[in-house]
Specification:
By secondary structure, this protein is of the alpha+beta class. Helices cover about 20% and strands about 35% of the residues.
Length: about 190
């Protein structure tokens, strides 16, 4: 018996979702994720440590060099970076914040993500999300916490025909199953 823990993807055993020429749903590789809470002064300091300006506008995502900061509330951000950066980012952000009041929580093992892309991406996501996802109402760079059916998600439009969906690992089989079923109608 081994004492080594094996990391398992939340998408393990799930069928790929693709409707040729219409939509593809694909898991995103493992990543580092933090929930950051703080006032505007703390957010400014965190930006320096994280390497991406935390947006001070609600429903906005900012990305640079493989890192993303998504504004989820007046004092809350989701920070996303490449896998394996937890310790380095904790140290850099901690140093930048010094003794400022804040909360930085590693949620790398709680969250996972997938992309929905293609000309029918909006249509597929609309099968369980009540937001108006038309490009004019939900432009590139917009991000928000919302619901897909009964599951909490963070939805971020990364391109005109591409969405990034963040969710808790435990919701993956439920949401994936609904998307798989809805894709059969396309």
């Amino acid at each position: 018996m081994s004492d080594v823990m094996t990391r398992r993807s939340a998408f393990e055993g799930l069928h790929p979702i693709e409707v040729v020429g219409a939509v593809t749903v694909a898991p995103v590789p493992y990543g580092t994720r933090f929930s950051f809470r703080g006032d505007s002064k703390a957010a400014s300091a965190c930006s320096k440590g994280f390497g991406v300006m935390l947006p001070n506008t609600l429903l906005k995502a900012e990305s640079d060099d493989g890192r993303t900061a998504i504004s989820l509330g007046p004092d809350e951000w989701l920070l996303i970076a490449a896998d394996g950066e937890v310790e380095a980012l904790e140290a850099a952000i901690g140093k930048a914040l010094n003794k400022q009041h804040h909360s930085l929580v590693d949620i790398s093992h709680r969250n996972t993500a997938f992309t929905v892309s293609g000309p029918k991406a909006e249509t597929l996501l609309a099968s369980g999300c009540l937001l108006d996802l038309h490009l004019s109402a939900f432009p590139v760079g917009m991000a928000t916490r919302t619901i897909y059916s009964k599951a909490d998600i963070v939805l971020w439009r990364t391109a005109p025909d591409t969405f990034h969906v963040e969710l808790w690992r435990s919701f993956v089989p439920f949401v994936w199953g609904l998307l798989e079923e809805a894709s059969g109608e396309m």
